[in-house]
TrEMBL record:
SUPFAM superfamilies: Homeodomain-like. Residues 18-78 form the HTH tetR-type domain. Residues 1-20 are annotated as: Disordered. One of its GO terms (molecular function) is transcription cis-regulatory region binding. This is TetR family transcriptional regulator. InterPro entries: Homeodomain-like_sf (IPR009057), HTH-type_TetR-like_transc_reg (IPR050109), HTH_TetR (IPR001647), TetR_C_31 (IPR041583). The keyword DNA-binding applies. The lineage of its organism: Bacteria, Bacillati, Actinomycetota, Actinomycetes, Pseudonocardiales. Pfam families: TetR_C_31 (PF17940), TetR_N (PF00440). Signal peptide: none annotated. The keyword Lyase does not apply. Keywords: DNA-binding. Residues 41-60 bind DNA.
Amino acid sequence: MSTDRASARKRGRSKNDPGRPRRIVRAAIMVIAEHGVEALTHRKVAEAADVPLGSTTYYFTGLDQLVEAAMDEVAHHSVAQLREWERNLPPDAALPTALADFVVTSATEQREYTIAEHNLYTVSLHRPSLRSAAAEWDDAFAAPFIARTDSLTGRMLGTLTCGLQMQVVLREEEPDRDKLEAFVRRALVGSVA
C-alpha cells in the first residue's frame, strides 16, 4: 500500500470522500479570514483542507464558484448562530444586554468566522453574482430581531449588530461589553428598550 493511500485511509478520507467539498469550503473560509478574499487560491485552500490540489479544482472549477460556496456557508452559519441565540433568549430578556453579549461572543469565540463573514459580505459589492445572496442574508439576519420587536426595529438591530461586529473585530483589544450595550440601548430609545 502506498504511503499516500495509507495516509488517506488513516485520516478516514478516500477518493469517494463525501465530506470533502464541505471541508474545502470551510478551509476557504479560514483562508479568507486569515488573508482576505483577494489572497484566496486553490493551493492555499488545498493546504488548509489537507486535500490534493486537484480536489479543489474538481469540486470548484473557479475561485468565483468557491467564493460563492463560502458565502453560502458563512451566511448559513451566521443566521443559524443568531437564530439559536434568539431561541435560547428568555421572553423577558433585556435585549441590549443580550445583544451586547452576542456581539462579544461573535467577536471573540467566533472571531475567525466573523472576519470571514464580513470579508465575503463586502466583496459582494464588487461581484454582482453575490449581491442577491448578500441581500437574502440581510433579510434572514434581521428575522430574529423582527420576531422580538417590529419590522423597522428588527432591521435596524440587524444592521447595528453587523456594524458592531465589524468594529469589534477590527480592534485588537477586548470588546467593551458595556459600551456595546449602551449603543443598543440608545438605538432602542422609543422602541422596546
